[in-house]
């Protein structure tokens, strides 16, 4: 990436180059669970996860996926009246767990949607990904231009994984990325800044792993305290220190300088509905933080990957 180019290789820019527009995500909720909630690896979930498993909660409102799709597509078409307008996103919980039956029967229903949504994305945990899951997703490449698998990494330190009650491992992340590559799937990795007991260079270590795993995309998140989470209790008890917006922006800019410039940045900052959000406060809106991260990169004279040592 040259100095004339934007400092960050964002998904919006990448989609605009390819489709002449930004496709809108249509979130689908299959009403599944996650091994960290049903007792297979833990109970209660990761400390920051709310009861909807970071999803829309549509399934608990008994809306089937056709209804969810039609509603989401109508919203996407307000911005993009012409096809393609959307990305299909199986977001909530771990979509390849406890088995593949719900995902498979949903995938069988969505092939015709590819006209409006040429990309399908499936979110899961690395420890819930298998050869069988990879095969099922690879079959979707007959219908869709791209299939993205989203893996939470969240920390490259297994001690932090235990502290946050996540109970996955760095090795699982590495192995699942290899498997996804074998089947031609595109990998989007989630990383997080500000977790308790994360070391000062925690975000940089995550980026290094994501570079080494040859991921195609990355999402950056700050630790947020949401209502009805274990984290909310710990925060109210004074056990948790949160990053403020200035600290977060510096950390993400440092991480971007080390990130492979070919990796597409799908998200620079997370957001949550006001009704669920507790802290950190004050916190500027998503768009403001996004702009301030890009501004910080420009002020530093940096571009994505400018400090990365290539082998
Ligand atoms: S792995 Fe995901 S869905 Fe499961 S508890 Fe953690 S954040 Fe929630």
Describe, in plain words, how this protein is organized in 3D.
The longest helix has 15 residues, at 65-79. The model has no long low-confidence stretch (mean pLDDT 94). The chain is 35% helix and 15% strand. The radius of gyration is 19 Å and the shape is globular. The protein is of the alpha/beta class and 311 residues long. Helix 3 links the parallel strand 2 and strand 3. Strands 1-2-3-4-5-6-8 form a seven-stranded parallel β-sheet. Strands 7-9 form a two-stranded antiparallel ribbon. The protein has a single domain, classed as Alpha-Beta Barrel (TIM Barrel), CATH 3.20.20.70. The protein contains ten helices and nine strands. Iron/sulfur cluster (SF4) binds next to loops. Iron/sulfur cluster (SF4) is lined by residues 34, 36-37, 45-46, 49, 53-54, 93-94, 125, 166.
Short description:
This protein is α/β, with parallel strands linked by helices and 311 residues long. Helix content is 35%, strand content 15%. The protein has helices at 11-19, 65-79, 101-109, 131-139, 158-163, 170-182, 202-212, 230-236, 245-258, 286-300; strands at residues 24-28, 86-90, 119-124, 146-152, 186-193, 217-222, 225-226, 264-267, 277-279.
